[in-house]
Amino acid sequence: MIELLKLEKFSFGVGDRFARQAKAQLQAFILAAQQGLDVVPVWNKSNREHVIVGSEPSGTRAAVEAAVKQLGWRKAYHVDADHIGLKTVDRFIPHSDFYTIDVADWIGKPADATRVEAFIRTHPELVGDISIPEIEWPFQTTVAEVRRIAGKYLLAVQEAGKIYRHIVETKGGRKFITEVSMDETDQPQTPPELLIILAAIADEKIPIQTIAPKFTGRFNKGVDYVGDVAQFEKEFNEDLAVINFAVHQYGLPDTLKLSVHSGSDKFSIYAPMRRALGRFGSGLHIKTAGTTWLEEVIGLAEADGDGLVLAREIYAGAVEHAGELCAPYATVIDIDFKKLPSIVTVNGWSAAQFTAALRHDQKNPAYNRHLRQLIHVGYKIAAKMGDRYLDALDKYEDTVARNVTSNLYERHMKPLLLGLERVTPRKAAVPAQAATAAL
Fold first, then answer.
1. H helices present in 321-378, as ranges
2. According to DSSP H, which parts of 90-142 are helical?
3. pLDDT by residue (tens digit) across 169-215?
4. pTM for this structure?
5. How far is Cα 286 from Cα 182, in angstroms, rounded to an integer?
6. Which of 18, 168, 284, 330 has the largest count of CB atoms under 10 Å?
């Protein structure tokens, strides 16, 4: 493995659809640092988002560097080539030092049977009773079960290896951070599956520092978690234990941590996640990407006048083009169109009514999670407005920035991480004895 650009313990992925909020976002990290909490900003923008908005990765990097210079930020920061594959990564390589390798589309595609059998022979420790510290009962696996799991995920991991090696060769020795993403798929990965995936990643010699599995429940864009919170907490704790174990067992980087995609606004699982992180002393990478775009719209509406008019137009456009806007995000939204207010109704709303419906305050009876999800995926409408939208962001910069900063710091960083910086990470778990069942 090449020398790493190490990712710090806590990191927040922040999106900036229109490259106007880097300074407001960075202000949230400054507020956290003033309270003793070091959270590293990672600006992420996917190829899909660049295509929809008509932007380039160079613009993301330029906006970040300008904010860092203007605010005098002297701590670490990164720019993420988000959800890239072999066909899309090259445009990011000159501008990114963090790569989210997305191989979800390869999950379930059958791996070569010979390579599956070779994997099983290489890892006899994955068959039988696998005792992992901090997990109450051993995992019990059979050869057939390992064969099934490897058959499902091995090709995806091999594709991740191809992409990683391509980045290494193209960057010519420049260090970077690697994440592997498997979250945009239908079925969650169980902790035993995660262990097998990590063993395969180690075989590919990918120095992975974050992994984004698919968790139990729904992680819809910009709204709260939907699912069994108790079951999520159990699996999240077990995933952390598996990562600790795999780091020691397979020589993976000791900075390896879980990554939670679409993690923004998952308020009902923040307390369970916080408990688990405190229990293990673990780090976390969490993506809050699209909430900045939502806070832009909230800020415009809150400013009233032509800002509110623009926000209403964005909603109207999103309703009229809902099909095309929702299609790319089908696995991470859940909109009941019968619960959306009509365009006529919204055009009659005051600034207070619009912001009450859009702002994620579940105690407010006016909050509408269906409207929020639709606007979340509706940034293409603003992109088509061109300079009219960007000029409005400049005109109402103070109001928009206040919402962006407050959202990141007050709703996300403080409840999830503040105070955890004082928790000492546990030493790597001692691996269990070799599996008890013979091949």
1. 322-326, 343-347, 351-358, 369-376
2. 113-122
3. 999 989 999 999 998 787 899 999 999 999 999 999 999 999 999 99
4. 0.94
5. 14
6. 284
